[in-house]
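Two folds, back to back.
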Amino acid sequence: MSVPNNNVAASAGKASNVQKTPGAKPTKAASKKKDEEEGVDAGEGLDERAHGKALIKPADQLELTEAELKEEITRILTANNPHAPQNIVRYSFKERSYKPTLVVDQMAVHFVLEGSLVHQDSDEGRRLRAKEGVPEETTTVDTGVGSDEEEPETLSSPVEDRPDSVASKTDKKEQKLTNQINFSERASQTLNNPMRERSCQTEPPPRSNFSATANQWEIYDAYVEELQKQEKDKEKQKALPSKKDNDKSRIMLTETQSNDFTKVAKATQILERMVNQNTFDSIAQDFKYFEDASDEFRDQEGTLLPLWKFQYDKAKGLSVTALCWNKKYLDLFAVGMGSYDFSKQGHGMLVFYTLKNPSFPEYIYPTNSGVLCLDIHDQRSYLVAVGFYDGCVAVYNLKQKGLDPVYKSTAKSGKHTDPVWQIRWQNDDMDNNHNFYSVSSDGRVVSWTLVKNELVFTDIIRLSLNGVVSEGADGSQQPSIACGTAFDFHKQIDYLFLVGTEEGKIHKDHLWALCCLPVSAMKNGSSFCLCCTYRHPAGLALQRCSKTYSSQFLETYDAHSMAVDAVKWNHYHPKVFISCSSDWTVKIWDHTINTPMFTFDLKAAVGDVSWAPYSSTVFGAVTTDGIVHVFDLNINKYQAICQQSVVAKKKTKLTHFEFNPIHPIVVVGDDRGYVTSLKLSPNLRKKPKAKKGQELPKDPEVQVAKMEKLLSLLRDSEQSTV
């Protein structure tokens, strides 16, 4: 191979004969020359490699036993590249989809250098030497004596005095070892996998040549055809309203289901939720993690943080008439859409929203009449009972497809003759049939039982005005009917309930009245009625049950001067309930006392009121001036600890209000069809702190004790004034 000129000169100097200095040690270069004279055909680096294999023990070498030295350590080399990608996909025109690539190149190139060395014996090497004027190297074979004599001259040569020469390396006392333990030079060669080429060919799409000339007549004909199609569509739309009212729901169904997306409905629903969670990510973060730190400086007052706003375009013009959270799926809630303007009654809608997708409802059920109330079953969360403006009640099953209810009352099955204002699920009867109760302006409180494919009704109460008598058609005197507007069952005593009327009174009663049949005592301290199969608690065994109601109530409260909009029992304390009315007041009652314990004037008509599920002393109310009021009697018994407007327009009226069973949020509905979710600040959901060395009792006991303490203070103050 061709080398620089100084290497050639060095090789020429080695070939000259010099005398050896007596007494001098033979060096590596002299031994190499001797090997050349003895005819040993070895390379220049052979002796250097042999010298590198000399075993020299350094001072800091680790001492190993014979067993450790003889231990074999196996290393396996593979041809697979650990950094090679494994998930490469390429589009296959044959199958019209993306397919993973099976063959991946495993070769990894660590270093590439393009050299310019030329072999000295090649024709190109000779031409280069001739061009540069370098004489060709002549090798002479001398005797051993001659080689010894030329060693001093070689040592004095300037070429050999370079720091990287062999002689300079031999003068060093310590040599740099490759490894301080046992080093043996080994070499391995891996087999490179043969390269394979894989290719595919797809068929090109079919092509066809098309040519046409567009003139004035063809353009005119195209416009005429389009106008004819539009006229036919208008005629079809005019013919549709002439059908029966029962077909209106089917018409709306065809509009929403014009295209069949059933195959990808689940995937598109999940994708829509993902997009909405990314869109409203900041709101989701506030819902999960944000806590208003400024509550520490507000002197026990709190705020409401607006979160999502729910609306449905096809429900514009309708008011929010009912709200109810699902007890099993805590992110899902139902909204009843109707109208409180009775001169503009029309269709209604039942929609279900979820916090995971605030942009569009999860379920949509259009109705022929406006929805005024609804309730979701506690155990079977797919059953929803709905009351309508036309007096019908219906039960929807979310598991079944279609927009029609699975149960619906008719004139033959005992439907109400006036709007249904309140509806509530109750525990199953003795035959494990689901049942619910409804109250209406016709003065009836009706029990509805789901038996096979029909609704079986039973009139529980007929409300009447005490002392007011009207004449019937035959001249007989009949008690005047009172209009029921709200009712609620006791949370612990499921047979005890309250009914609010349009006249402002609240009646307390139970599900049993007088009867002519005897009762048989049971072992558990309750009685079992033989005429209606109801189980009576102890203390009511002397009273007898009947489906025909006696006009006497257990208690009647002169609650408000206008219609009672809502009445609800406390979640914890068994004696306390709350009521609100359009007379601007919210009142808290002890059902054993005829007078209210607390009265709050909110300076506007109150649309709804609700107890908080996490505290016995916290409740919220909404008024028609667009303000949400939150009270905590344990902190302030005289005024609200939060009063906040949550509407954009001043004329917007809030209609309903509901706490979430678990999460610290509330939903508020208005008369424009919007539902707003709000998060409670820490001051609105405080829990009692335990004193040092004392343990707090369980939560229900704590809540009952909180309310009982307030009631005892009020009773003591009343007795002192008397």
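---
second:
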Amino acid sequence: MELLCLLGALLAFGAMVLEALRSSMVFTCLWALYLSLYQVGQVFLYFQWDSLLLETGFLAILVAPLNLFGRKSPSKQHDSITFWLLRWLLFRLMFASGVVKLTSRCPTWWGLTAVTYHYETQCIPTPLAWYAHQLPVWFQKLSVVGTFVIEIAVSFLFFAPLRRLRLGAFYLQVLLQVLIIVTGNYNFFNLLTIMLCFSLLDDEAVSSWLGRGKRKKAKAGWPETLLSWAAVLVELGVYALIIYGAKVYFQLDINWKNKSVSSKTAFTYHEFNHFLKMVTPPSIWIGVLSLTWEVVTAMFRCACVRGFFWKLWATVQWAIFATAAAGMFALSVVPFTFIEYEANSNIWPAVRQAYEAVDGYQLVNSYGLFRRMTGVGGRPEVVIEGSMDKVTWTEIEFMFKPGNVSGPPVVAPHQPRLDWQMWFAALGPHAQSPWFTSLVHRLLQGKKDVIALVQPESQYPFTREPPAFIRASLYKYWFTEASEDGSLPQQWWRRKYVEEFYPTVHLGDPTLEKLLSELGVKDKGPILQTPDAPVPQALRLVREHVQGLSGPLVLWSLFATGVAICLLKVLFSGSSKPASAEPKSKRPKDPPAASSDRKEHREEARPDRKDNSEERAADSDRSPRKRK
């Protein structure tokens, strides 16, 4: 597993800094490596963002160029077809995430009070989450309304024919993800979602960011001006309709006296289910029409390619990738319709069978984040304690999750998997988390690899000798309130003891041995010793150098190194460009498709010579009288 992780990290870092490695072959390797880790990691990797990463990684295989033999592959006519699949994935992710909040019948989402609990009950909050928790209740409820609008209503603008509507949807989606990033540690999920949002942009938008926008025309004709104003009116009408719908269905009312906005859900669960039945099938047909448009426009671009061979090659590629896109779209309809039973039951049996055949590869998945709000009565948290004499107990702190009343950290885009599982373990009895008994067993044994997941060795309280006894207690946590004078509190959390979570056990304890056997986590035999081969030795060397560093530090160091390398490449290419690029610009190389036009350009470049020869021939044929 360590070898797979290192290979994936090296390949991803290489693709970040080297354009030649951004090929479909590299993305195939990355997808296969992560799929292997996903299957073996089981509950520790069974998160929706792991499935999202696998699905996005498979689509990257279709989007990325092939780049065989180190040759740089130019853009193809079918690029818009495969790139559209990312937009459809973004729509399924956002629309389903908004819908499941209401179909779950969670009272906090229906009462628009979910965010008042979200900041302190999420897995690993950030320091800004404490400040966001102090905001007034009316603002928290308004933010829930904004979440519904962005995730459900704005998602349909992904397929709008007007580009400014798509750009508006892009900025709204990015705004939502940035707000989640600054208030919660959700690893790479929000960054990956922002990358999917780039499928809403076009070359003109990206060029304008880079300062390479096209020059505006001097003066447009009246038809173009009329169409431009009509598009602006349509866009304003769409935004006005969204704002009006939010006002009506959530009863938004501005209280100028109290400087607040009141909100309340104005529809019932059955009305929303009826709305979902009406919207889900048309949303699929919108996807069909949008994909058909991309396929047809790509076909016309193939027809415009010059040269019979190049036109045939472009058409073959178009047919292959259009078929692949249609197949991926058909498969994705099955998990997408999980949000509405009637639409799911109407899917063709052949499509359902195909989905079941490839379900294990995580090619297409169902999504629905933050379905229910947990910890409404207080954030449940498990605290592990160790003792040498069963009298004096010492808390075993984790690196990132709330344990004592210490402040929340910033760990994104790293995800401490054990800390996240501790949050899920607190939601039920320890029997629902078999790995917890194994964790207690390893801590009693003093396994260094497991201790490194909990705390650095220098900060672990039982460094010299493992604890003789271990127990776990369940607490309820709440954010502390801000002082009336505006000063910050000395502690971020306040907590209250609830009950015993795990009984006091020791090595050889009959209770512990029974639990290990029942849960199937007992050692079946002696652990095999690592051989002294070159690969294990290299892994051991890397582990010794990296183990003392935290996950966020390693990730940000890799990111900073990659950015520095990319900046140096840009600087060096910019400094060498004027000297080497000027002679080449005198005779630009024609593309293969334009080779048939060279003769026409050469003949057009010499019109004067041909005209002068015709004039001389005509003068010689004239009589002396006419010449005079």
